[in-house]
């Protein structure tokens, strides 16, 4: 299988053009999408600011931007373990993120 075919198998997420909008995909160790995972975005004081559930193909996208600053991202999915992710936002358009289970 060539690379183009491999890319077609990956979940499609439109590129993000607005600043401080977090979007991406949650996958297992072998890069298979995890549906119905929960993404929790917290500030540095551990206040929950956003909570989003992935779609059937493992993708998610916040609808509203976050303020500039440092955030912690926790991913929760039955049967999977994830580390904590840290993200620093500075008012720029962000790439789509891939959160991979350990």
Give your account of this protein's structure:
- By secondary structure, the chain is mainly β.
- The protein has a single domain, classed as Immunoglobulin-like (Sandwich), CATH 2.60.40.
- It contains one helix and seven strands.
- It has one helix at 3-9, and strands at residues 23-27, 38-42, 48-53, 59-61, 69-76, 85-89, 97-100.
- It has a four-stranded antiparallel beta sheet, with no helix packed on it. It has a three-stranded mixed beta sheet with strand order 4-1-7, with no helix packed on it.
- Strand 5 (69-76) and strand 6 (85-89) form a beta hairpin.
- The chain is globular and about 35 Å long.
- Mean pLDDT is 87; it is low at 1-9.
In the CATH scheme, the class would be Mainly Beta
The portion of residues assigned to helices is under 10%
- List unreliable stretches of 5+ residues: 1-9
Separation of termini?
A: 27 Å
What strand order characterises the main sheet? 3-2-5-6
Helix count, DSSP H or I runs of 4 or more residues? 1
Mean pLDDT score:
87
Global Rg? 14 Å
Per CATH, the architecture is Sandwich
Q: How many beta strands in the DSSP annotation?
A: 7
Beta-strand percentage range = 35-45%
The biggest beta sheet is recorded as:
4 strands, antiparallel
Compressed to H and E, one letter per element, the order equals: HEEEEEEE
Shape: globular
At the fourth CATH level, what is the homologous superfamily? Immunoglobulins
């Amino acid at each position: 299988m060539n690379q183009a075919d491999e890319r077609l198998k990956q979940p499609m997420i439109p590129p993000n053009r607005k600043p401080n909008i977090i979007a991406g995909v949650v996958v297992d160790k072998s890069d298979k999408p995890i549906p119905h995972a929960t993404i929790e975005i917290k500030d540095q004081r551990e206040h929950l600011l956003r909570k989003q559930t992935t779609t059937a193909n493992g993708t998610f996208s916040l609808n509203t931007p976050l303020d500039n600053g440092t955030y912690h991202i926790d991913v929760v999915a039955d049967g999977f373990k994830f580390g904590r992710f840290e993200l620093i936002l500075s008012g720029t358009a962000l790439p789509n993120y891939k959160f991979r289970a350990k």
